[in-house]
Design brief:
By secondary structure, the chain is of the alpha/beta class. It contains eleven helices and nine strands.
């Protein structure tokens, strides 16, 4: 399969180079976003203690009550106020597209990839809807209609500001859980989560903290948030802004509360053998950790990369297998 690997890798690089709006932003500790002080003279010491406490009390840090202002418009777009207040007002209103199937059937919250557009993954949502699964596709913090003024990319969700990245991912998990609460209010009881790339990380954490989630599926999986940022092709500009301010070993610890690795559970994992963003060795580490903790996840390895999972035949195979898994798991 050497010829296929070479072709996939060339495609991955070509897709990466077409996005020419990446900026290397300045490093910042950003402690003010997680309850600290911006001028703390010992930011490493603060983050060391904060990260450990956050993991130990993750149920509280990720807790989210139902929103008080859910509104569904005529175009089936749900909006509500996020439980996390960020510095950008436009980011604090959550937008989610609703694809109703059967009222008494299963329902999933779909969490798309980093920098996904408003209509991204629409075909996946329609496919699940056709299978009888209701879908609520949530726009991630700082994406499309939630994008911060003056930004072209979601530089806050995966960025060079350590504290802001932590807050943005906390917000994403809480927003996803508030989406689940809305689905419950509509009468859905068989709930699941489906995530892609950064959506997998966020969805995984939401899953292990929300007892209402009965099944989950993830496209692209990895271990620690920091390792992906350092080694991934699509995050190389983020690491460029971080590398002089923090070591990857430190960052792995500081960003552990928003990494899948501290929280192990069972799920269906789809990944690419030639992924230059979520490196295969990180996926292998994640699977090993799950199995070590008594979980036996269902997996699907495809001969593709990160971007190329969107292409046929990979997208068709992944979509059919994921749909079949969710239909069976959600009854």
């Amino acid at each position: 399969m050497r010829w296929l690997e070479q072709k996939v890798r060339r495609y991955e690089v070509r897709r990466w180079t077409t996005d020419n709006n990446r900026k290397v932003r300045p490093f910042a500790w950003g402690l003010e976003h997680i309850g600290g002080h911006a001028d703390d003279p010992e930011p490493r010491r603060f983050l060391h203690g904060w990260a450990q406490r956050s993991i130990e009390n993750s149920s509280e840090w990720y807790a989210a009550a139902p929103a008080h202002d859910y509104q569904l418009d005529r175009e089936n777009v749900l909006t509500f106020t996020s439980s996390v207040r960020s510095p950008w007002p436009e980011n604090n209103t959550v937008h989610a597209q609703y694809f109703p199937a059967r009222r008494a059937g299963p329902a999933v919250v779909v969490l798309p990839n980093w920098n996904a557009k408003w209509h991204g993954q629409r075909r996946l949502c329609q496919w699940l809807q056709l299978l009888g699964i209701t879908v609520l596709r949530m726009s991630m913090p700082y994406h499309d209609r939630r994008m911060a003024s003056g930004h072209e990319r979601a530089d806050q969700l995966v960025g060079t500001n350590i504290g802001l990245t932590l807050q943005a991912n906390q917000q994403a998990v809480r927003d996803a859980r508030q989406c689940l609460r809305w689905l419950e209010q509509q009468g859905y009881t068989r709930l699941g989560i489906l995530g892609t790339s950064i959506g997998s990380s966020i969805g995984y954490i939401a899953m292990v903290h929300d007892p209402a989630v009965r099944a989950s599926g993830f496209f692209h999986v990895s271990t620690y948030f920091a390792d992906v940022v350092k080694a991934g092709m699509t995050t190389s500009h983020v690491w460029e802004g971080l590398r002089d301010g923090v070591k990857v070993e430190e960052l792995r610890e500081f960003w552990a509360p928003i990494s899948p690795m501290p929280y192990v559970e069972n799920c269906f994992l789809v990944y690419g053998k030639y992924d230059p963003t979520f490196l295969p060795e990180f996926t292998a580490d994640m699977l090993a950790a799950l199995r070590k903790n008594g979980c036996e996840p269902q997996t699907l390895e495809l001969h593709c990369g990160h971007y190329s999972l969107d292409l046929p035949p990979f997208s068709y195979v992944a979509g059919m297998r994921m749909g079949a898994f969710l239909v069976q798991a959600l009854g």
